[in-house]
Every structure is written in structure tokens, then in C-alpha cells.
Amino acid sequence: MSGRRHTAENTHHATPCRTDGAASVAPARAGQRSSLWTTISPARGVGFIVVSLVLLALVVGLRRWSDLDASSFLQTSMRSNATGQRRSHDRNSTAPLVPIHFSCSKETSPQALTCPGPPSPPPRTSPRPSGDSAPLCPDYFRFIQDDLRPWHDAGITREAVERGLPHAYFRLVVLAGRAYVKTYRPADMTRDVFTQWGVLQLLRRYAGRVPDLDVMFSCDDLGQVRATDYRVPSEAPPVFRYCKETRSALDIVFPDWSFWGWPEYNIRPWPQMLEEVTQENERVRWPERQPYAYWKGKVGKPHMGHMYRIRHQLMRCNISNGHEWNARLFRQVCFEKRSKCHRIFLFTKADWAWSYAIRNGFKDSSIPKQCLYRYKIYIEGNSWSPSEKYIFACNSTVLFVETPFQDILSRALVADKHYLHINRDDMCRSIKTAVDRGNQHPEQAQLIGEQGSKFVREEMSMDHLYDYMLHLLTEYAKLLRYKPTVPNDAVEICSESMACAASGRERDYMIESMERYVTGFDPCTLPPRHPGMNN
Question: Per UniProt, which keywords does this protein have (predicted)?
Fold first, then answer.
């Protein structure tokens, strides 16, 4: 398993700073400086003049550097954020990594920016030795076939895709490696932006391998494509969404936008966030953490639906009426008359609030700084919550409140191996019991926390996320019964048109998560379908 972790290869290049033996000598005293000046030979004097001219040119260059356009800034950022380029789960591959050119013109309007042609596929390499196939994908890749099962026999028609219009926030078409988007309605925050960005990075990483596509994307929480609404499953629209309700939904699960960054909440792309959390895990290890269950999040108002009902129930598990439920909970509430929101810790301490946190860039709500408790609670939001992966990354033992919603991560997890199960109908008692038993058996509780954290770090690495996306879209494309075409009013998008027009953290996170090389190796090997699945 450890062989699959993405590792950075840091290289340092020494810059020559001397032209002869004397050029690197720094005088220790004024007398030595005078001696050096009086003993310069004519030849060395010429050398001194040359060095002076070079220094003068550097000074002039520094002034010009301040006027460089966005292209230079972005390229520098890409180099400074460089990570290991060879995928760890295909480390033995000798396939080349082909750099991808990226630059921004002085024009930053999205309408004025033009997209270059797609990256060229890498040169063909010799086939693998017989029997030496790419590593097997993680087991959760089997859900790809489960999600696509309704259309397996009849295929996907254009009419079925367009029946998804009432659910779609945007339509994505890929033709010959170029991406086109037609937007139907705005998404919350930048969900749609970073979902599209993720697809663009897949097109860069696996240039020439992503098939032609026509996909409807929904960026909301609750799945709405129900099997009971259609006489025949294949008549249902294939709609891509971040999660699905297990009992009856036919949505196709896709990685959520926050893997590439969540700028509104000051959450960096997944690999960079993992690095920060790892440092905090090393600083405060499990036995040294507070022996309670921790949760922090938005609760909202009781009349606003399912999300708020279950989270309001969770808040009853704070210390109250003399009951100690072993829970330490943050909540965020709003006072409409003052137009302010306050974050409440437990039930007494008022702090600055949700609206302040947004204005302050969530600088005081750092995810790594929340890894201070032995136990962390995961509870659904409006459906699934993207906080899930950050909670598991902490090395804390996760108390997972049972939920009918599944995303790419949650349906891969195993109770008592990656987390401890919490009964949603008796949360307080279930949380207290789990914490008490964990503190009585700390080695076992710590092991569960470490196994859950290891899973999200390795099995949910960006390497595997991109492979999941590639396999899902490839299998989906095989089912299309028509040739995709660019919709009317669709706009071509590319890394240049998105990153060069962005600003602030949105641009920073795009640069941090940008794929800089076309890979020449194969994705992991898709495992067979789940046993018992119909052909």
C-alpha cells in the first residue's frame, strides 16, 4: 500500500557565483579589503569590469521582472509547487513524462482568451512484458460498473442524456481532447468551476486517452434521479453528481470539486492539504490528544430541512443537564436582527461567526488545527459532506454517523476497520459508548484511526482519483449510442482560459493543482464487476 503514495522529489541546483578563485572570497576586515583592491592585476581588472557589467544587467533585469505578465507568474508558481512526477503506483514504468506548455497572454478576459490545441500524447513505448500489467485499481473502482448498470444493455441515447436537463448545472462535451461547456444555472460557490478544472487536468494528464463525451453534471447535494420514476432503467437520464442516495437513486458518482481546492473556505487542493495535516499529526500524536469526540460545522435553522434536523440532534450531545456524552461540538448560528452569525463552542462561549469566517478567509478555522482530539465525528450535511476526507485525514478515530448517502469515499470504507459506527437514532449514547471503549482500549482505537487515515491518503490519492475519472468516463463513453456534438452556445474551456482569468485563491489553487506533464504510463487496471452483478 505504501508504494502507492505520491512522493515529492526535491532537486536543488547550485548556481555558479564565482569566475575565479578570488571571486568567492569575502573580506573579513577593512585592511584585507584594501589589500585585495591594491593587488588586482590588469587581467583581473578586466574581469572585475565584466562582473560589474553583469551585476548592472541583473539590476536592470530585476526592474523589468516586476513588469512581467501573468504568464511568468504562473510558470514560476508551477515550478515552485512542483511535486514528484512519477506516479508512485507505477513507479517502475520507464514511459516518458512529456511537459505541457502553459502560458497566459496579457488579455485576461475569459471571452478573449483562446485555447491552444490539446497536449500531444506521449510517444509509444515498448509493451509491458507478458503478464506484467498495470497495478490493480482499488476495490471501490468496482462501483463504476454499478453506477452505469441501468444503461448497460440498452446503452445511452441522446434523448436520455437530454432528459437530464432539469437536473443539470452544466453540460460538458469532450471532442478530440478539447472541452466545451454549456452552463444552465449557477452553482453554489465554485463547485462547477473546480469540477470543470478537474476534468481539464484529466485531459492534460491523460492526453489522447479521454474519449469523446457528452455529460450532464449536477452540482447540488441531493440526488433526484429516482429508479421509481422510470418504467425502464435505461430511460433514466445519466446525471453525474457528487453523491447518491443508496436506496433508490440512479445518479453517477463523480469526485467532488474540493479535491482541486475550495477557495471560499481557504482549503487548498487535496495533496497540499494532506501535507499540512500530516505535519499537524506529527506534532500532536493520538495519545496526546483530547480524549473526546470533536465536530465543527454549520447547523442552520430547524425549518430548513433534513440537514439541520440531524445536526440539531447531534448538538444535543454536548454537555447538558449534567450529562457528559464525551462530545465537544462547535456550531454556527445566525442572528438575523444583527445580520451576524456566531460560532458557538459547546453551549456558552460565543465567538466570531460564519459570516466573519467567510470574510476572514477561514484563517481561524484551519483544518490541520482541528486534529487535536482523539475522535472526530462525521455526520452528513444536506446529503454527504465534503468534510469527510479531511476528517479521516487527521489520524483521529472517526465516529461515522450512519447515512443513506454515498460518495466516492464513503462507499469504500469498512466499519471497525476505517471507522466506528454511530447509530443515527441514538447518537449521544452511541458516541459516549464509542469514546469510552476507545479510551479503555487505546491501541485498538488508535489503529482504527490510522487505518482510516491511511486509506484516504493512499487509496484516495490524486493518482487514483484521476484513474477513477478516466475509467468512469471511458466506460460511460462506451455506452453512448450517438456521436457527441458541441451544443449551441457552448464555450470551449482549457487550463489557460480558466487559470489566466482567475484571481486570488481561486487562481492559486488552480496553479497548485495543475497537471504539468502528459503521462506515458497506463492507468491502474479496472477490477472485475462486483460478484453477482448482471451482465
Answer: Membrane, Transmembrane, Transmembrane helix
H or E element, residue 239: strand 239-241
Confidence of residue 53 (pLDDT cuts 50, 70, 90): low
Joined grid coordinates for residue 283 = 506534532
59: number of CA atoms within 13 Å, CB side?
Answer: 6
Give the number of other Cβ atoms within 10 Å of residue 111's Cβ: 8
> Would you list the domain boundaries of the chain?
139-256+462-518, 267-333+352-406+410-459
Three-state DSSP state, 320: strand
Q: How far, CA to CA in Å, does 38 sit from each of 23, 29, 266, 323, 526?
A: 15, 15, 59, 86, 75
Yes or no: say if 511 and 498 are a contact pair by the CB < 8 Å rule. no
Number of residues that make up the chain: 535
Which residues, including other chains, have CB under 8 Å from residue 533's CB and lie 6 or more apart? Answer: 145, 146, 149
Contact 512, 269 (CB under 8 A): yes
Question: Does 234 have pLDDT greater than 70?
Answer: yes
Does 382 have pLDDT greater than 60? yes
* Topology classification of domain 267-333+352-406+410-459: Rossmann fold (3.40.50)
Q: Is a pLDDT exceeding 70 seen at residue 286?
A: yes
Distance of CA 119 to the CA centre of its chain: 23
18 or 432, greater pLDDT: 432
* 175/158 Cα distance (integer angstroms): 16
Cα angle at 107 between 505 and 493, to 5 degrees?
Answer: 65
Furthest C-alpha separation in the chain: 98
Q: How far apart are the first and last CA of the chain?
A: 31
